[in-house]
Write a structure and sequence with these properties.
The complex is a heterodimer. Chain A is built from seven helices and ten strands. By secondary structure, chain A is of the alpha/beta class. Chain A has a six-stranded mixed sheet, with helices on both faces. In chain A, strands 2-1-4-5 form a four-stranded antiparallel sheet. In chain A, strand 7, helix 6 and strand 8 form a beta-alpha-beta unit. In chain A, helix 4 packs across helix 5 and helix 5 runs parallel beside helix 6. The longest helix of chain A is centred in the last third of the chain and has 18 residues. The two termini of chain A are 28 Å apart. Classes of the chains: A alpha/beta, B alpha+beta. At the A-B interface, helix 2 and helix 3 of A face helix 1, helix 10, helix 11 and helix 13 of B.
Chain lengths: 238, 412
């Protein structure tokens, strides 16, 4: 397996009044393609900040971030937007679907910002929607879908550009345990069957248990980085 | 890719405008009224302008008047037209020698009491040539005009202006063939003139009795010296050669009057062209002024759009954050909001054009004012409306594009 990304001595400071507070401090690790990693820690541990940097939404104050062999920590916002568009898929806790817009159009959203022709775009969106098993809900608007279905639309949106990295921020936080397990099982199968690299950010140990590797943060520092034994999820799944 | 993005954004914006019809119309209201006001104002202004132009044209725009000039006798200068320095021979010389001149007529004018039966009226009596009506573009209403034969014989025949006709005769009474008295001299009425209206300075051109020049000279006006004239009317070949005709007339008269290079003219050449162009310029200024005032409401409409867009940017902060997360550059967000502003103000402009056209028609039918719908004003108002939308949309759009994606995603 080849290396997808690597962070070295990553630090992100925030100014609070006169003093700088380190949300992430001196973090180093590398991710291979096809890994399924959980970044865990209590709230305020810096895991969201780390995810924003990994997702190219933010830049580190110091340290280096290499993504697909490119030194991302020095790129312009426009180039970062391009990387987000082509190589990274986001899944958020609150789904973040556009209201009054059909599931299919929501899935198409990232393609508006890509050079793909219109017809191609529609086809890619349909394919992504089929991957999450929602082909029959294409014309439904988010308000007509259940929470689990909405999150699956959001996953389809993250997949539509065929990204190298799927970043999920508390993907089950707004769901009941049943739908949450379905979502995690879907993510796990994408990782297993298609070799998609997945990073899940969570404070919930049952969610983290789905991942094969866990990176724990506390006060912005890595306290544990272990490759866990292969797991198909908690005992409740078949 | 850019074009695809703009087309898709415009389609989405149009869909959103349609979905929130009430709110969209309220947002557009300022632009709608602004555009409608511009179009209505320009139409009314242009109508008034054309009306004035038509009035002036009725006086004849390719006509020049020659009047006797100020002359100095013993150091005292008299005003224009005080002494008869012009002669019939001058008029004939102009007719003969000036190439830009189509026709020449001349006249003497006085005031006399005219009597028919028990009615009488004090009016202008003008002795002129048979060609006068042709020079003035003045048609007859009935009967005939006097001819060379009448002129040679100093026949006691006359043609009545519309005002005189109405003062002396009852409605429906045929004046042709009737005998009237002009200053105690009996005249036979041989024709009546069509209405000519007022001059631009308010003189009633129809309050006149026309007769052969020789008749007036000998029997009514009693000039001191025979052969002098008060007015020479010159019709130029077209209104374009008016200036050239004027120069030719001045050259001829300076020669026939033996005026040296250093001496002042003892005549003056006046045209209606100056009046026409002055009033045309005034009308243009007026129309522009009306359009400028109406444009202010368009500006206010633009501020309304800015207000709504600022609210919209705040309302959609999460959406902006999401779009940025999935790869929108700040330029894309800027474009999106600018296109939305243009769609809103453009549709407002379109509705405004329709409304303005309707208002124009209503004004036309209700007030019976002459109203001229100017398509160019509609196009200009439409473009201006879209420009206003983009101008006032820029600030909110810029704010949206400068949002920090992380902050925007966190926004509830």
């Amino acid at each position: 397996m080849s290396e997808l990304l690597r962070v070295e001595r990553l630090t992100r400071l925030y100014r609070v009044g006169e003093i700088g507070v380190a949300a992430v401090s001196d973090v180093s690790f590398a991710l291979e393609r096809g890994e399924f990693v959980a970044i865990t820690g209590p709230s305020g541990s810096g895991k969201s900040t780390l995810m924003h940097i990994l997702g190219c939404l933010d830049r580190p104050t110091s340290g280096e971030y290499w993504f697909k062999g490119e030194k991302v920590s020095e790129l312009s916002p426009t180039r970062l937007a391009q990387i987000r568009n082509r190589s990274i898929g986001f899944v958020f806790q609150s789904f973040s679907l556009l209201p009054r817009t059909s599931a299919l159009e929501n899935v198409e959203l990232p393609l508006y910002y890509s050079p793909l022709p219109l017809a191609e775009q529609r086809r890619a969106a349909k394919r992504a929607l089929a991957q999450v098993g929602l082909s029959d809900r294409a014309s439904h608007s988010p308000s007509q879908l259940s929470g689990g279905q909405q999150q699956r639309v959001a996953i389809a949106r993250a997949l539509v550009n065929e990204p190298d990295l799927l970043l999920a921020d508390e993907p089950t936080g707004n769901l009941d345990s049943q739908s949450g397990a379905e979502i995690l099982s879907l993510v796990a199968s994408l990782n297993r069957e298609r070799g998609l690299t997945v990073v899940v950010v969570t404070h919930d140990p049952t969610v983290a248990a789905w991942a094969r590797r866990r990176i724990s943060l506390r006060d912005g520092r890595v306290t544990e980085d272990s490759a866990l034994a292969f797991s198909d999820g908690p005992s409740l799944s078949p | 890719m850019r074009a695809k993005f703009i087309v898709m954004t415009a389609t989405l914006a149009a869909t959103a405008v349609w979905r929130n019809r009430l709110r969209s119309v309220l947002t557009m209201l300022g632009v709608i009224f602004g555009v409608a006001a511009v179009i209505a104002m320009v139409s009314v202004g242009e109508g008034a302008n054309r009306f004035v132009q038509a009035q002036i044209a009725s006086l004849g725009t390719n006509i020049l008047f020659v009047i006797p000039g100020a002359i100095t006798s013993g150091g005292a200068r008299s005003g224009w037209g005080m002494r008869s320095t012009l002669t019939v021979a001058d008029a004939q010389a102009i007719q003969r020698e000036a190439p830009s001149v189509l026709a020449v007529s001349y006249a003497n004018r006085g005031v006399a009491q005219v009597v028919f039966g028990r009615k009488n009226w004090r009016t202008a009596v003008q002795g002129t040539t048979p060609g006068y009506l042709g020079v003035r573009d003045w048609p007859l209403a009935s009967g005939r005009f006097f001819n060379e034969h009448d002129e040679k014989g100093a026949a006691r025949v006359c043609v009545l202006g519309k005002t005189v006709l109405e003062e002396l005769f009852f409605p429906g009474q045929d004046p042709v063939g009737a005998t009237i008295r002009i200053g105690n001299v009996p005249f036979r009425v041989i024709g009546t003139l069509a209405a000519k209206g007022q001059t631009s300075w308010g003189q009633d051109q129809d309050d006149v009795v026309l007769m052969p020049f020789s008749t007036a000279e000998r029997k009514v006006l009693g000039r001191e010296i025979l052969g002098t004239v008060q007015f020479i009317y010159v019709k130029a070949r077209s209104s374009q050669v008016l200036d050239r005709a004027q120069a030719e007339i001045e050259r001829i008269l300076r020669r026939t009057h033996n005026i040296g290079d250093r001496e002042e003219d003892d005549f003056a050449v006046r045209g209606l062209g100056e009046i026409a162009s002055a009033s045309q310029a005034a009308g243009k200024v007026m129309t522009r002024l009306l359009a400028a005032i109406a444009s202010i409401s368009l500006l206010v409409g633009g501020i309304g759009i800015m207000n709504i867009l600022l609210v919209s940017v705040t309302e959609r902060t999460r959406e902006i954050g999401l779009r940025m997360a999935v790869g929108a550059k700040s330029r894309d967000i800027l474009t999106q909001f600018l296109v939305e502003a243009a769609v809103i103000s453009g549709s407002g402009g379109l509705i405004g054009v329709i409304l303005g056209f309707a208002v124009t028609r209503v004004v036309e039918t209700v007030t019976e004012w002459p109203v001229v719908f100017v398509p160019a004003s509609a196009a200009a108002a439409l473009v201006f409306a879209a420009a206003v939308g983009i101008f006032f949309g820029y600030y909110p759009a810029h704010r949206a594009s400068r949002l920090d994606p992380i902050e925007a995603l966190r926004f509830e």
